[in-house]
Amino acid sequence: MKNTETSSAPDALPRRRALGASLLLAVGLIASPLFSGEVLAAESAVSGKIPRLANGKPDFSGIWQTTSAADYDLEPHSNRRDAPPGPGIVEGNFIPYLPAALEQKKKNFANRETADPAAKGFALGVPRTVYYPEPFQIFQRKQDVTVVPQFGHAVRTIHTNGTKHPAGEAKEYWLGDSRGHWEGDTLVVDVTDFNDETWLDRAGNFHSEAFHVVERWKYLDPNTIEYKATLEDPKVYSKPWNISVILHRHREKNFQLIEDYRFTLDYDQYYPPKKP
Amino acid sequence: MKISVRRQNLRRVAVLVGALGLAAPLLAQAQQTRQAASPAAQAPAGGGQIGNEKSFPAIASGKWTGPRLADGQPDVQGHWSNTISNHSNFTDPNLGAPGDRRRGDLPPREQRAPSRVSDPADGQVPFQPWAAEKVKEFQQYFANPIKPEYIEPLARCAPGGVPKSFYWHGYEIRQYPGYVVLLFNSGTRIIHLDGKPHLPENIKLWNADSRGHWEGNTLVVDVTNNNGKALFGRTGEFSSENVHVTERYIFDNSNKRYNYVATFTDPTVYTRPFTVTIPAKRWTADDKPNGWHFETNLANHDGKEKILERDERICTENNGGFGNTAVTARK
């Protein structure tokens, strides 16, 4: 079990945005609805500078979503009844499955309508939450990045406080255990301690509990994140492989997440009691 | 070899959840006995070890003299919980769930913790007659739920909703410019402080839609778009999807306690508005996790500081009911 090296990149000096924020505070505008992440992000877009936390690190706060068809199938695919066509997001196009794993993938694909954990409303896991076709919101503090998906209920915390993966024996989390560090303006996240329950997409691409993901989150501009990940799993793949998607900031007026607890739909009808 | 809770749980029950006729008896078992799986979870029925205050201090709204975040919000981040029992009984928290056999051992009503209904004075929800009948019916069949609607939704891993999330397990508050985020054992609430309008009213949510602002030491939150499905506890009190809640989270300047004081208005179900009061206390790294109100791990790092971490919460995936956390360390 690997532990992440947590590099301590030298803290950048607080930028002008932080100074601007203090000025706002000073003139007593703290309660104003104008003082919000979105407005600051929009200001940054105008100036072309990415939003930053007070400590100078990039601030990914906001609501994000990919426009890619990655969740239908990570690999290149033609259209089919349950999916639009897509060029895939795998570097080199195809996932380097071991022979037995490829057979399992084919079974998953055949049974995807019911076997896909997302079809049951289950936690999407990592990295699927990032490119699932519903928005997710990032809340960021110095010590952590919180990822709240619209779909499902599973909130992910990426620790950015220099802490390491849990000591001792491995755990089995649906979302894995995420430890991040900064390499310049790129957030690098090492994710381990997975279970084998989540899928990577609705085409049945999968992993075992030996799964290990290294993510790289980087601003291309103030409203666009480039997300890259290296996925390795010696029980399932013959070598590590890479994916890459672009995430766009939701900038629609008053846009917000609308909870999507899909797993409650079977029993929604029984509550609350109705007036006779 | 890794061991996870998932594998120890009654996964096969999940298969039946879709077929509700069959699932009801199994879920009934979950309502009654699933908690026996963990020693810490045995306490809740009557209050017992999970917090049993007979009374609690009033906290006045007023100035905040405690720490603040850079954006000016009072800094109330961290781990919190209710201090009196759990969701087993809404108006008589120490009494336990309908049919709880330990009821006979309890002191008389006036020596038990107060009702969570602080107004009206009788501590009862002012239900319209038809709604009172529905609650009575739910309680009658709670231990023998012959219909799907007698299953407490948490036993199906539904979100705890408003207000039940505040007296179930402990929870974490995280704050950001423009937001207060509540991470519950089942469900998440994002309280928007930025003044944007509520969602269109036909959108109904388990955790409702929240707009808040700070008044000194008090977070005032307007709560709409509630689907009314979560119920208030194992005693079956409820609102409809027309309920409007005004919440006041009144923080003590010690930053160690707050009181949740919420007014529920719903002309579909109640004869008048009523007030719910739930005391809460803070848990810190100096406290020992207790498997119910305070469920955290200490981070693995080279320094000496105790850093609290919260596990992911998984429920429907495990079919464990009652908010099992995801994992146990493998042996």
Give a verbal description of the structure.
The complex is a heterodimer of chains A (276) and B (331). Chain A has 276 residues and is α+β, with helices and mostly antiparallel strands. Chain A has helices at residues 16-26, 37-47, 99-110, 112-115, 128-131, and strands at 62-66, 136-140, 144-149, 156-159, 177-183, 186-192, 212-221, 224-232, 241-249. Chain A folds into 2 domains: 15-49, no CATH class; 55-264, Beta Barrel (Lipocalin), CATH 2.40.128.20. Chain A has 5 helices and 9 strands. The longest helix of chain A has 12 residues, at 99-110. Chain B has 331 residues and is α+β, with helices and mostly antiparallel strands. Chain B has one domain (5-309). Chain B has 4 helices and 12 strands; from the N terminus they run αααββαββββββββββ. In chain B, a hairpin with a 2-residue loop joins strand 6 (209-215) and strand 7 (218-224). Chain B is globular and about 55 Å long. The termini of chain B are close together. At the A-B interface, helix 2, strand 2 and strand 4 of A face helix 4, strand 4 and strand 5 of B.
